[in-house]
Amino acid sequence: MQINLKETAEFLKSHDNYYILTHQSPDGDTMGSGFGLCYALRKSGKKANVLCSDEFPKRYHFMYEGYEPQKFSPETIVAVDVADRKLLGSKLAQYGDYVDLCIDHHVSNEDYAEKLLVYPDASATCEVLYRVLCEMDFEPDKQIAECLYTGIATDTGCFKYANTTQLAHTITAKLMEYGINIEQINREMFDIKSKARLKVEQYINSAMEYYLDDKCAMAAVTLDTIKKTGLAQEEFEGIAGMSVQLEGVQVGVIIKEKDEGKFKVSMRSASDIDVSAICAKFGGGGHVKAAGCSLEGSLDDVKLRLLSGIAPAMGFDLWLA
Amino acid sequence: MQINLKETAEFLKSHDNYYILTHQSPDGDTMGSGFGLCYALRKSGKKANVLCSDEFPKRYHFMYEGYEPQKFSPETIVAVDVADRKLLGSKLAQYGDYVDLCIDHHVSNEDYAEKLLVYPDASATCEVLYRVLCEMDFEPDKQIAECLYTGIATDTGCFKYANTTQLAHTITAKLMEYGINIEQINREMFDIKSKARLKVEQYINSAMEYYLDDKCAMAAVTLDTIKKTGLAQEEFEGIAGMSVQLEGVQVGVIIKEKDEGKFKVSMRSASDIDVSAICAKFGGGGHVKAAGCSLEGSLDDVKLRLLSGIAPAMGFDLWLA
User: Which residue of A has its CA nearest to B201?
Assistant: First the structure.
């Protein structure tokens, strides 16, 4: 059942002993809304813990500095930024059918909780949570403000993406009153890279090939390359964005060999070209600007087939001779 | 003479036939405040042109789309985001002694104009200009909003740096009402790179060396390297930031050979270490987090001397044996 801000505020005031569930592979928004809510509840005299199937990532250390789990029998289960109970992960799966309240911003929310507050237009769950806290007349402190800020900043690429709302900026202006360390947080969220990540980025840059009057960029990573170079598999996250960073590139492609001769293709558009339509030709799909598909064969074959799908979408006549 | 917002608004209302001067090597803030002011004046029935010693850079094309210089005899000279008349560049130097009004946010403003409106705490001149336009009860349109937004976004690294003010966020929330194309602008400002820039970045990454328990990163570019690789000199702007992107690095150094055996050193701090103090030892200076100096000798010598200055500041005992 969908509820509104006021009902959510009343719910939170009238319950106690909270387990707050975050999604697996936790990002800044689920961590920020989880700890932001936890600290707000604790400051309101409630008992509350934050739970996650994975370890809390080190990069969000400032969110859980000084945090200690409390001992109590859980009575109220709240999920934050968890669009689908499958995303709770293995350790928290046991709570999937007993979520009393879910606070979220994903349009795809599966409505699995007894009560659901979802604003699909919000840039982040932290934006929604801030509005709940206002409804509760709750005054944040510095750590809560940093949690909420981080959720908004990470989900909007530091206010860069199209999902950035006016409210994201307005809320941030207010949160800054509590003395957020913007510079340090943003450096840790957006600038610092691991050696392994730098190595992957360097490989991708060096492997980039340009086609169709340099309007299409393509880089491939084979199992053989990974074996020879020792590139870290887990450092490929979000790497597809690199394929459209060169000026003039309209469609970017990253091809990654998953099993021998089986390739996962990530496609990005930096123009009006709908890459989900291109990927659909190969049995894949996604969004207009970010899509994917799977292809089998030799790498050269896969490249040619992809180009033969991309070329007409870019207005190139019968590209293959 | 320093004047306030109200006096600036009255000045702009009571004058006409404006030449608006921007600084050489124009950035997003001087361009945004220049064109933002120009369009606002024109919409208020005044005549106004934007002037620059350099060509308007292509990346700011959306600011001057549809812009045509008007024909009139200049009566009022306004400089925007120009802290020192030397920064007007060769073509505009003729106006340096006749600037009637300067609108700026640099604490270092040389107070060369007859009237000066400067807010050193503002994140950008566009932030100051927005406040002037409010004082004039002027309603922006989409293009003016995009000009002002771009100035604020570029000067704050898209709201990432410590100079980002609450007002920067509040103003942005208001500007977004005019339908700014945030995604496209930020992609062009922050994500797209030229082939030449990518090449420079790749070189810097590959040349990076790590010292002092990997807490100090250092990369050097010699004249010989530039000759052999064809790296573009003009693409080194802002490259020093790359020296502190690796996790754990506290001090980053980029060494660039200017003339044979003469090196320009850029130093960045990603910690509490004051790099201006380190550079001061070598006759340089700057800010706590960003400083520089010049050194002569062989490259190896220069590196060793720098490390001998950096090591004690990082708490390493007598680093040179």
Answer: A202
What is the token pair recorded at A68? 């200690």
Low-confidence ranges of chain A (pLDDT < 50): 321
Residue to mutate among A149, A167, A169, A186, with most B CBs inside 10 A, is A169
The pLDDT assigned to A238 comes to 85
Tokens of A56: 């809390």
Give chain B's domains with CATH numbers. Answer: 5-191 (3.90.1640.10), 195-320 (3.10.310.30)
Q: pLDDT tens digits, residue range B69-112?
A: 999 999 999 999 999 999 999 999 999 999 999 999 999 999 99
pLDDT over 50 (residue B321): no
Q: Which pLDDT value is given to residue A215?
A: 96
Which pLDDT value is given to residue B318?
A: 56
Contact A172 B159 (CB under 8 A): yes
The answer to whether A158 contacts B161, with C-beta atoms less than 8 Å apart, is no
Q: Rounded to two decimals, what is the model's pTM?
A: 0.90
Chosen for mutation from A161, A174, A247 (greatest number of chain B CBs closer than 10 Å) is A247
Contact B40, B13 (CB under 8 A): no
With H, G, I as helix, E, B as strand and everything else as coil, classify residue B255.
Answer: strand
Are the Cβ atoms of B173 and A173 closer than 8 angstroms? yes
3-state secondary structure of B197: helix
CB-CB: which of B160, B191, B206 is closest to A202?
B206
Q: Is B82 exposed, middle or buried (0-12, 13-18, 19+ CB in 10 A)?
A: buried
